[in-house]
Amino acid sequence: MTKTKTFRDTIRPILLLNTMAGMGCFIYAETTRTRKLMGIIYSTCYVLFILYSGRWVSLYLGIYYSTSTVNSESFKTGYYSHMFLSILLIVTVRIRTNKLCTMISLLNTCDQKMETIGMPKQIALYRKQQFLCIVIVTSVVAGNVANCCISQLNTSTPTIVKLMMACGINMPALVVTVSDVSFYFWVKFMEMKFRQLNDLLREMLTIKPCTPTRARVVDMIYDFEKKEFRDEKVLAANGNANTMRAVKQIHLQLIKIARTVNEYFGIQILLTMCTFIFYIITLLFVIYKILANNSFHPDIISLVFALIMYTSKIFLLSDVCNKTTSEVSDTGDLICKLYEPSTSKEFRAEIRDFTLQMIQNPLMFTACGFFDLDNTFIQGVAGTIGTYVVILIQVGQIDLPDPRETNTTMTTTTVTTMA
Known about the structure:
single chain; globular; two-stranded antiparallel ribbon; mainly alpha
């Protein structure tokens, strides 16, 4: 088995997944003018393919579309909005390709620095996360295709035509799902990096009920030959100060990388989140109208599946961002616990600098600054969805007068007045 040499080799599966969706082509190699041109040509061909598949779907949709569907026009509107969103995502990714290349280079440098102070690269864990992302994309796309074949196409349609139609209809959904999963992976990757630093800081603490305050900090010296920390009974002030200085530098670099991730995916997250909220409001209203008729409709299964998918995406993306920012907050708590009067002046000075650095460089994931991605965002989304669904239900119960009856009444009143 060949040994992984570079960071790009470690994240190659997620980059290839983006390439399959028309995003980030050839970015895993060293950027040259030829590769940039190839990436632009590939993304352009992918966009043209989506547009052509949309034209093909709209042509044959009237022939093979199921007559038992709630509303054919609403389905077409949802498909075209997905198609427009996927094209915007591809264009946005192509414009911001340089940021992704910069992010990969910074992560490669940060990995090397973390390895020099004894923290492993955790390649197996990175591979596991990428495999999980691929499984999620495959499951979502397969579920959409199966749902389309079963509930949205005529039962008399030939199987090969069903599969081709379902794949064409879900092509934009593939791009959107890969974009969301890529953002999830990179934020999860940053969470693992911050957790590694916090684990190192926890190793420097020996907090026990019977341990006196002056002995809570373990003096550690880094052995550069064996690449591991070893406890010393003698005072190792310089070793602790150097370790804290290295952790401080790596932490600042990770903050910068996390901000680059946020800038790279900012527009994509803004577009997808707003679209998902709109879809959830619409789906809830349609499901309510179906259930209000007190009759089971075959399309309700398809609507519930889509509702669960969009809701899960909002929850997972917000949750992973919240966990990453929580890890950053835990770093501040740990370094405050390490600040003890019994430690050396150099060690305490590094902690003070570290604390000031964290205050000046906070981390928060946002959608282009419009809203923060955390648990409060989930609460706000729930309140917004509930408010608009109630408004739609109330508006839907209002019986508007028939314009013809209104005109007849006005004419009769006018004739009576003139008489």
